[in-house]
UniProtKB/TrEMBL annotation, chain A:
<dbReference type="GO" id="GO:0046677">
    <property type="term" value="P:response to antibiotic"/>
</dbReference>
<keyword id="KW-0046">Antibiotic resistance</keyword>
<dbReference type="Pfam" id="PF13732">
    <property type="entry name" value="DrrA1-3_C"/>
</dbReference>
<dbReference type="Pfam" id="PF00005">
    <property type="entry name" value="ABC_tran"/>
</dbReference>
<dbReference type="InterPro" id="IPR003593">
    <property type="entry name" value="AAA+_ATPase"/>
</dbReference>
<keyword id="KW-0547">Nucleotide-binding</keyword>
<comment type="similarity">
    <text>Belongs to the ABC transporter superfamily.</text>
</comment>
<protein>
    <submittedName>
        <fullName>ABC transporter ATP-binding protein</fullName>
    </submittedName>
</protein>
<feature type="domain" description="ABC transporter">
    <location>
        <begin position="2"/>
        <end position="229"/>
    </location>
</feature>
TrEMBL record, chain B:
<feature type="transmembrane region" description="Helical">
    <location>
        <begin position="188"/>
        <end position="214"/>
    </location>
</feature>
<feature type="transmembrane region" description="Helical">
    <location>
        <begin position="20"/>
        <end position="38"/>
    </location>
</feature>
<feature type="transmembrane region" description="Helical">
    <location>
        <begin position="265"/>
        <end position="284"/>
    </location>
</feature>
<keyword id="KW-0472">Membrane</keyword>
<keyword id="KW-1133">Transmembrane helix</keyword>
<feature type="domain" description="ABC-2 type transporter transmembrane">
    <location>
        <begin position="61"/>
        <end position="338"/>
    </location>
</feature>
<dbReference type="Pfam" id="PF12698">
    <property type="entry name" value="ABC2_membrane_3"/>
</dbReference>
<feature type="transmembrane region" description="Helical">
    <location>
        <begin position="226"/>
        <end position="253"/>
    </location>
</feature>
<dbReference type="GO" id="GO:0016020">
    <property type="term" value="C:membrane"/>
</dbReference>
Length: 292, 360
């Protein structure tokens, strides 16, 4: 289990992190979301040891994170970095060897990943000759080549086309299901909602919400009652506190509070009820509310 | 340690394949070989061709006489460039343009000798005896001057590549992934060792090329005794100088994030190297001067001045040991300080990092 505990970091007068903490279980995919400058990258850089925190701790399986444990992490920094003049396969292999793989093991692992990420035809091309999307795939291969025990990925999906997004998501799910904790940050909230078991929302250097996606949707934000009535006369909902929108001969009512049974009865009197239920907020809605 | 060798291995593989490296290797070898041939070319003609008419004078060293039947034909040979001068009846010298000074002296002395011999006097020429050192002085100065250029070129070139490599990794943020896999000293050490080995290879090519060319042209016969000592001292001092300047280059390089800033951030280092070069150049010409003697002990000047001095003159073992000892101390100090600056500055991307901020 990867635990981030009460991280604090200042840059001069600016407080970048003010008590950031979360935990990621083995086999759990954790989505880290927040506005630009909220502290996601700083947190990840501290987890990877690129930066030192002023206080707080990162622990792995209950023990403080050591250098050797960190060598088994896979990391994709926010600003992509590769040797532009080095060939794709050679580069992935090199990073495998730096992480401690033997020559043959590194070559095999690099070959397999390159195949899987659809780069087989470009394996002997210099990185600078690749499109940005393909360079990003190479970057991912570099992060994955040594079968990391923990994955920390800063914005891995940014700049990818939908097909590449799917390929990357598949690879991540695969690694995750083999028991690896995965942390990634993203602004694509639908994607986070779809992929992640749990999310953490950070704003102004503080965690404003952390938890399983389902739980957050139940507990955070406004849960609205949604009612769809067909053939109701206009004005049927005048007495109710809510918004009515008209969609053809259907009327949609969204109510935040009130006696739901009473509302249902008045709707049934007015017309034919097609839908009646609580509508949980989407992650995007929770995010907007939490960050506001 | 393994990480260090992996990094060094990559540096060597990447660099050795580039055109720039191969070209500079070929150029430096060519330059040295060409220099070995220069004395032969500058030595000029082995013998003068002189057209003689009538009385053939006494034989003179380096002068070859060819007999012509008439003065007119001898003059024509001179005009056509077949002969350097014409000697008419051992009385008159004719030349096209100004008479070569040495040829003039040779003819004059041969003429005089012939006349003296004819009068029955016998003169024993003066015998010249020179010291063992003085005998090789000009060759030693030549070797020393060549060494200054080679050392300066290789040191500045190799250190520059260390700085550029550091900036490449910092600027592209690869350093963040690298440091997740290897320690900073492995990354920095690997870079310095890898590029240093390439510098040594280049030095070996220069020395080897020079020696082979020298023995091919016969220049090697003029080499002073203890040539192998000069070669060994050059290699050792190159290693020390390179360790010093490359650590400096890495530290300065780690302060900036863009290649365009490399030159300006390295200015203090390149100025120090240029100063060392100038001092070493004077030391080659005047190896026993006070300036050369003092600076051949003071690091980092000693890295270039001392090998040049040992090539140009005999230096006492005590001085060499003192100088090497001080240089080793300086190298260790710079490596530690450089590693400290590098560790702290290399992940601080963006604006140029101030040296005072990271040294504290």
């Amino acid at each position: 289990m990867l635990e981030v505990q009460d991280l604090r970091k200042r840059f001069g007068d600016k407080v970048a992190l003010d008590g950031v903490g979360f935990a990621v279980q083995p086999g759990e995919m954790f989505g880290f979301v927040g506005a630009n400058g909220a502290g996601k990258t700083t947190t990840m850089r501290i987890v990877m040891g690129v930066l030192d925190a002023d206080s707080g701790e990162v622990r792995l399986d209950g023990a403080p994170l050591t250098y050797d444990a960190r060598r088994r992490f896979g990391y994709m920094p926010e600003e992509r970095g590769l040797y532009q003049k080095m060939k794709v396969a050679e580069q992935v292999e090199y990073f495998g060897r730096l992480h401690g793989l033997g020559r043959a093991a590194a070559r095999d692992a690099a070959g397999e990943l390159i195949e899987r990420l659809g780069l087989a035809e470009r394996r002997d091309d210099a990185v600078e000759a690749l499109s940005l999307g393909n360079q990003q795939r190479v970057q991912l291969a570099v992060a994955l080549v040594h079968s990391p025990a923990v994955l920390v990925l800063d914005e891995p999906f940014s700049g990818l086309d939908p097909i590449a997004v799917d390929a990357l998501a598949e690879v991540l799910k695969d690694r995750c299901s083999s028991g690896v904790p995965v942390v990634f940050s993203s602004h694509q909230l639908e994607l986070v909602e779809q992929l992640c078991d749990s999310v953490g929302i950070i704003a102004g250097g503080r965690m404003v919400a952390v938890g399983a996606v389902d739980e957050l949707r139940d507990t955070e934000g406004r849960t609205l009652l949604k009612l769809v009535v067909r053939g109701a006369a206009p004005g049927w909902a005048d007495g109710l506190s809510g918004e009515v929108t008209t969609d053809g001969d259907r009327q949609v009512l969204l109510v935040e509070s009130g006696d739901d049974q009473e509302i249902l009865r008045s709707a049934m009197r007015a017309g034919e009820v097609e839908h009646f239920g609580r509508q949980r907020p989407t992650l995007a809605e929770i995010f907007r509310e939490a960050v506001a | 340690m393994n990480g260090l060798w992996l990094v060094a291995d990559r540096e060597i593989r990447t660099r050795i394949r580039t055109k720039g490296f191969l070209i500079s290797l070929a150029l430096s070898a060519l330059l040295v070989v060409a220099l070995a041939f220069v004395p032969k070319l500058l030595g000029g003609q082995d013998a003068y061709e002189v057209a003689a008419v009538g009385t053939v004078p006494v034989a003179a060293e380096d002068v070859k006489y060819t007999n012509y039947p008439s003065e007119a034909e001898a003059r024509k040979a001179v005009a056509d460039g077949k002969a350097d001068a014409a000697l008419i009846d051992d009385q008159k010298v004719v030349s096209e343009g100004e008479l070569d000074q040495r040829l003039g002296l040779l003819l004059e002395s041969a003429h005089r000798e012939g006349k003296i011999k004819a009068s029955g006097l016998v003169i024993t020429p003066l015998q010249v005896e020179t010291g063992a050192t003085a005998q090789y002085q000009s060759v030693r100065t030549g070797i020393a001057t060549l060494l200054v250029m080679v050392l300066f070129f290789l040191l500045i070139y190799s250190s520059m590549y260390v700085a550029m490599g550091v900036v490449e990794e910092k600027g592209s943020r690869i350093v963040e992934i690298l440091l997740a896999a290897v320690r900073p000293w492995q990354l920095l050490g690997g870079k310095i060792v890898g590029l240093g080995l390439l510098g040594l290879l280049n030095l070996a090519v220069v020395i080897g090329g020079g020696l082979i060319a020298a023995s091919a042209t016969g220049l090697a016969a003029d080499f002073p005794p203890g040539m192998s000592g000069i070669v060994i001292s050059t290699v050792v001092w190159f290693v020390l100088g390179y360790a010093f300047f490359s650590a400096l280059a890495a530290a300065f390089g780690s302060l900036v994030s863009r290649q365009e800033e490399v030159n300006s951030v390295l200015t203090p280092m390149t100025m120090l190297m240029t100063l060392t070069y100038l001092v070493a150049y004077f030391a080659a010409v005047e190896p026993e001067g006070t300036l050369a003697r003092i600076l051949s002990v003071v690091p980092p000047f000693s890295s270039m001045v001392m090998p040049v001095r040992t090539a140009a003159a005999d230096v006492s073992i005590a001085e060499i040991v003192l100088s090497a000892g001080l240089m080793v101390v300086a190298v260790v100090a710079v490596l530690f300080a450089g590693a400290r600056v590098y560790n702290r500055a290399v992940v601080r991307t963006g604006a140029r990092v101030k040296l005072t901020e990271v040294l504290r």
